[in-house]
């Protein structure tokens, strides 16, 4: 079961927190300017809409947070 407190945490990641997580996932140079929780996928992933700047342009990309309740671990991917 995902508790109310855990759900609150999983739906309120900041841009710096997602940047750290995506860097740990192997995307070393990636960095987000903004992050907004937009919902859950049919597969149970927490979906965020993020923005990043590249060559003076703002780009938007979805980032997916996977929560494993058995190990209390979180992984992040595109």
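^ Assign residues to that structure.
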């Amino acid at each position: 079961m995902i508790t109310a407190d855990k759900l609150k945490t999983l739906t309120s990641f900041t841009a710096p927190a997602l940047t750290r997580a995506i860097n740990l996932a192997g995307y070393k140079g990636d960095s987000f300017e903004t992050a907004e929780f937009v919902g859950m996928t049919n597969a149970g992933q927490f979906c965020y809409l993020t923005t990043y700047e590249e060559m003076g342009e703002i780009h938007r990309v979805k980032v997916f947070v996977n929560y494993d309740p058995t190990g209390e671990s979180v992984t992040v991917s595109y």
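The longest strand covers residues 57-68.
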